[in-house]
Structure formats: C-alpha cells, structure tokens
Specification:
It is a multi-pass membrane protein. By secondary structure, the chain is mainly alpha-helical. It starts with 35 loop residues before the first helix and ends with a helix. Helix 4 packs across helix 16, helix 6 runs antiparallel to helix 16 and helix 8 packs antiparallel against helix 14. Helices cover 67% and strands 1% of the residues.
Length: 508
C-alpha cells in the first residue's frame, strides 16, 4: 500500500497571514501559471549565462588536449542532468516552494531546511548574481582592450549599477520578468549560433583551401585533437603534461570539471518554480529532460568552435574566448558586437537568478524562517493590516519587491568586497554542500520510505553517481580554498544561532 508523506512533516511552505485572524490551511504563494515551454525557457535562460563564454580558458588550462576539454564539458552536463533528475524525483514526490529547502526539511528535519534557505538566500544566490554582474562589466572592458581593471572602484561601481538595474526588472511584475526572460533567451541562442556559424565557415573555407593560413586558428586542422600538448596559463606558467603523475593529473581534471560545473550552474532552478507549474508531475521531468540536453549540445558545439576559431594557446589564456574569437576572425567592431550580445546573455542570467532568489526568500519567510516582511508581494515595506471595508486589490503588480531588494544589497556587498575567482569558489562550496545532502537524502528516502508516491523515479545509479562526485568536489574545494570554506562555516554558525534563538523565543 503506498505510503504518503505525513502531513505533519510535509514541508509545504504556506502563505503568510496578512492579518491577525486564525491560521488558514497552507496555500501556495504563486498561482500555477507556467507551462512546460515557459519552464524550459526559464531554465535555459538561467543556465546559459557567462560560463560558456568565460570558463573555456580555465578548463583548457587544466586538460592535456582539446578532446579532453570537450569530455569535461560532457561530464559536467551529465552531472547536471543527473542532479536535476534526482531533484525532479523529489520535486514530484514532496510538494513545496523554495527549491531544495523543503526536501532537506522533509528528509533531515527543520534545521536542515532552514540552513539550506539561509545559505542560498544569504550566500549562494547573491554571490551568483554578483559574479554575473562582474562578468557583465568585464566583457565590456575586454571588448575595449582593458583587462587589468577588475579591482578598480569604477569597475565595482559599474557592476553594482548593472546589478541594480537588471534586478529591479523583477520588481515590475512576474509577467514582465517572463517576457524579459524570453527576450534574453533569444540573445543567448543568437550568441552561440554566431560562434558556431563562424566555426562552420572556417571549417568550410579551410577544407576547401587547405593551404590558407589566415583563417581561424588552423591548429584544429593540422594538429591531433587527442594528443598531449603543453598548456599555457594566463601568468605565463606552462604545464608539461608528460611530466605529471596520475594524481597530479586527477587534480587538474577535477579543477576542469569544477569550471564546467560553474558553466552549468543553474541546472537545479527548475524545481524553484515547480509550485508554479500547472502539472508539475509531468512538466518538471519534461522540462529537465529537454532543457539540459539542449544546453549540453549548445556548450559542446560552442567549445568545439572555439578550438576551430582560435590558436589553441590562445584558448588557454583567454577569459573571454567568444569575444576574442570573433574579434580575431571579423575584426574589433564585430568583437564589440559579440561583447554586447554576451552582456545581454549575462543580463538574462541575472534576471533569472533574481527571479529565483526572490521566490525562495518569500517561501522561507512563509515558513517562518525569515522575517514576515519578505512575504509582501507587489510593494516595498511592512505588512499591512487590511480593514474589512477595504476593497480587494486589482493590481497586477505581483513581484516580491522586499525580497529582491535584500538580494540587491547582499550581492552589492559581495561585489565590493570580493572578486570573480574567490566568489566562484565560495558559490560552489555553498551550492554543492546542499546538493550533496539533497541527493544523498533522495537515496536515503528510497530505503526509508520505499512506498512514497514518486511520479518520477530515475534509476538509482543516477543519484549515487552524483552524490559521489559532488562529495569529492566539496572536499577538494574546502581543501584548496580554506578562506572561502571558513566564511561559509561562519555563516552557518550565525544561522544556527539565529535558528536557536528563534526556537527559544517562540518556545517561551
């Protein structure tokens, strides 16, 4: 006989009360209005961000051949698909708003759900938006030939300005945010298509005129894609792969995978809007199993094109490979055009992540984990007590403004006090700690509650593989980035204190 979740433990994030009336039954904050197509667009818009245009150099530096670099991109895509499918299992079995937090709460208890919400709202999502804002400005500077201004106050100020302008678009309404997401989705595909078409053009020209040396990088035509070659780091350091042992090479490969995982960052975001899907049991798996293969294909062909368009030594030393490739092939003006398109891509990712963190903050506030003012929808300020004589509001202004403003403030602080590389590691450690716990929890539930109704149930090997790899990423990241790990531990300690005080306060 099927075993259904105990209602007393089920982590539905109820809508907050707007007055002092007796509690009402749990209800969803956001009306289910999204179809699979809208969810597909949002997921692709979030994942295809700066990573496919900025990570290739970091990945290429840590692999011995272009073919192995493409393997790293495929590996990252498989891991993203495995993690997303596992979360789809949980998302269709355990209903709730707020991403992984209701699943962690259901599996491990209220404290785990709180810490997940706390980490995502205070650390992971603001750091992600900060990274994207920094990349937006760095793309502009790179197109202008300026590559050494990342720490300048003007650079940080422009990054904050980009953050504020794009994030406030989510304070207009959900409908406006959806329309903007569709527009940015178009620019993402346009940017990737531009790179791929340029690569195909070089292939056609080079194969028809084998002796030409003035088109593309030519290395793709005359060198072995699978053979070892030395790689050059941005600081001029050279890695001679024939001299490395197996353990050292494994360390480089793990670093390369970490770069790929950053590019795929956002694969989990479909579950954040699962409560807004009309038929989540059917539409959530459909969204994941169409969007992620699309993303993997885009990343694979784009990176293959980079190796065709550029000399391989340039790929390993560039942090803006797309702009560099188009500039070398078509000139500076087209390079600026490429930078503009990439900026639009990044803006779309900022918009999508801002939309997600706003809804996650509302869900956490509805649960009582954050102040109730973050449950306010459609305006800035505190909760209002509605008079019985007040007419129902007909406004369509439905964005979580207070939650968006909190995200803006935190992201601005990360921009001002951090930098691209440190925030990248900080973000990864925070994310994958809870991805690991969530996927491990899905495995535990298979044993603990075998009768739990699971409309979608992938093979057990899928969550097992993801748990093993993500566990390795966490240990490796904490070992090689102790400062960022310490900051996270401090934030968790603060969260534990707040949770303890809150429980004691309400208990008394």
């Amino acid at each position: 006989m099927p075993v259904h979740p105990d209602p007393s433990r089920q982590p539905l994030l109820a809508d907050a009360q707007q007055d002092d009336s007796p509690p009402t039954p749990p209800s969803k904050t956001f009306t289910p209005t999204f179809g699979a197509a809208a969810a597909y667009g949002i997921l692709v818009s979030i994942v295809i961000g700066s990573g496919v245009f900025t990570s290739p150099g970091a990945i290429d530096t840590n692999v011995p051949s272009p073919a192995m670099a493409l393997v790293m991109w495929l590996t990252g895509g498989i891991l993203a698909w495995a993690g997303a499918n596992t979360l789809a299992e949980l998302g269709t079995a355990i209903q709730g708003e707020g991403g992984v937090q209701p699943y962690l709460q259901y599996i491990y208890g209220d404290l785990a759900g709180f810490l997940a919400a706390w980490t995502w709202i205070i650390a992971v999502m603001p750091a992600t938006i900060a990274i994207l804002s920094i990349v937006f400005v760095e793309s502009i500077y790179s197109a202008l030939g300026v590559t050494d201004r990342a720490d300048a106050l003007s650079h940080k100020g422009l990054s904050v300005l980009v953050l504020v302008v794009v994030s406030l678009a989510n304070s207009i309404s959900t409908r406006v945010s959806t329309h903007l997401s569709r527009f940015f989705l178009g620019t993402k595909f346009t940017s990737i298509i531009l790179v791929v078409v340029a690569g195909l053009a070089v292939v056609v020209l080079q194969t028809s005129q084998p002796d030409r040396t003035d088109i593309g990088g030519r290395d793709w035509f005359v060198r072995n894609w699978f053979a070892y070659r030395d790689t050059i780091h941005p600081d001029g350091h050279r890695t001679v792969w024939q001299d490395l042992g197996a353990w050292e090479m494994l360390g480089h490969y793990s670093t390369a995978i970490y770069g790929a995982l950053w590019a795929y960052s956002g694969w989990d975001k479909a579950i954040y809007i699962s409560s807004e899907l009309k038929d989540p049991s059917r539409q959530l798996p459909l969204t994941i199993n169409t969007a992620i293969p699309t993303i993997v294909l885009c990343f694979f062909v784009a990176n293959a094109a980079y190796y065709i368009l550029l000399p391989w030594d340039v790929v390993s030393t560039s942090d803006s490979v797309a702009v560099t490739a188009i500039s070398r092939l078509l000139g500076v003006r087209f390079g600026i055009l490429a930078a503009v398109l990439i900026c639009l891509v990044v803006a779309g990712s900022i918009l999508g992540n801002s939309l997600v963190v706003g809804r996650m903050t509302v869900a956490a506030a509805n649960k009582g984990w954050f102040p109730r003012l973050f449950t306010v929808i459609g305006r800035v300020g505190l909760l209002k007590h509605r008079s019985p004589d007040d007419a129902p509001s007909s406004t369509t202004f439905d964005a979580p403004v207070n939650a968006v403003l909190l995200s803006i403030v935190l992201s601005a602080l990360y921009i001002l006090f951090g930098d691209f590389r440190s925030l990248l590691t900080f973000n990864g450690l925070g994310e994958y700690t809870f991805f690991f716990l969530t996927v491990l929890g899905a495995i535990i539930l298979r044993w603990r509650e075998p009768g739990l109704k699971r409309p979608y149930k992938p093979l057990l090997i899928i969550p097992v593989v993801f748990a093993l790899v993500s566990g390795f990423v966490i240990v490796r990241g904490a070992t090689f980035a102790p400062v960022q790990a310490l900051v996270l531990v401090v934030l968790w300690a603060i969260g534990l204190v707040i949770y303890w005080v809150k429980m004691r306060w309400f208990a008394s």
